[in-house]
Amino acid sequence: MTSSDLWTEEQAQGYDDQGWDMFSPERIDPVVDFLAGLAGEGAALEFASGTGRIAVPLRRKGIPVSGIELSQPMTDRLRAKISEDELPVVTGDMATAVVPGEFVLVYLVFNTIGNLRTQAEQVRCFRNAARHLQPGGAFVVEVFVPPLRRLPPGQVAVPFEVSEGHTGFDTLDPVTQQGTSHHFHRRPDGTYRYGDHNFRYVWPSELDLMAQLAGMSLVRRTEDWVGTPFTGDSERHVSVWRNTSAQTTWSEPAPR
């Protein structure tokens, strides 16, 4: 049993049409280029592959990609874009599900580590990544830094986007590290569709300890996919850990 929210058929149908820039080339291309550089000639595995926002363009860049996805309706949307033979997906929990084969790269993007809403499950997720990695392989996580500095006493919500098409804010519990993302998407007729998503936020240092428990070590942490240095003011990070059972040496992604 997993603590993750299970995306429904209705949520999956509207996922690719949310009216914000997560599907823009400016958002997707740097991610795909970075991951492709890490994968090289090897295979990649995406945890929480969803509708294929990253997996499909990465596969079309020539990288063999597999996925693990909890929601069958989300995978059904993926199947409208690419076949099972081209991009196989195992339906299951990313903390425990097993995919045949061995990978040079396992990755989790767009805050999806938080889909696992207990610390124990997040630890198991790191161990599951290590289980799938070949010696020297890399595990990549993109996730926000908990914005508690923007949460003054008495305030429970932090906005993360306010635009014409989408307004979103997180409600956060500093005691339990539980949060809920609230989304208001503007329809063409001017009305709004509401959706929410529950998560557990996690600190960079906490992730590093999870990696150690799984036999991995941190080799790179930046603010974004293009290498902006990570600082105390960074609101998110892209972190890379290496499977330290390896004798091979990790190197920076090659330009593609």
How would you characterize this protein structure?
It is a single chain. The protein has 6 helices and 11 strands. Strands 3-2-1-4-5-11-10 form a 7-stranded mixed β-sheet, with helices on both faces. A 4-stranded antiparallel β-sheet has the order 6-7-8-9, with no helix packed on it. With 256 residues, it is α/β, with parallel strands linked by helices. 23% of the residues lie in helices and 30% in strands. Mean pLDDT is 91; it is low at 246-250.
Q: Mind telling me the CATH class of the largest domain?
A: Alpha Beta
Task: Indicate the percent of residues in helices.
Answer: 10-25%
**CATH topology of the largest domain, what is it called?**
Rossmann fold
> β content, as a range?
25-35%
**Total helical elements:** 6
- The CATH superfamily of the largest domain turns out to be Vaccinia Virus protein VP39
Mean pLDDT: 91
Largest sheet: 7 strands, mixed
Going by CATH, the architecture of the largest domain would be 3-Layer(aba) Sandwich
Radius of gyration, CA atoms, in whole angstroms: 18 Å
Shape estimate: globular
Reading the helices and strands in chain order gives HHEHEHEEHEEEEEHEE
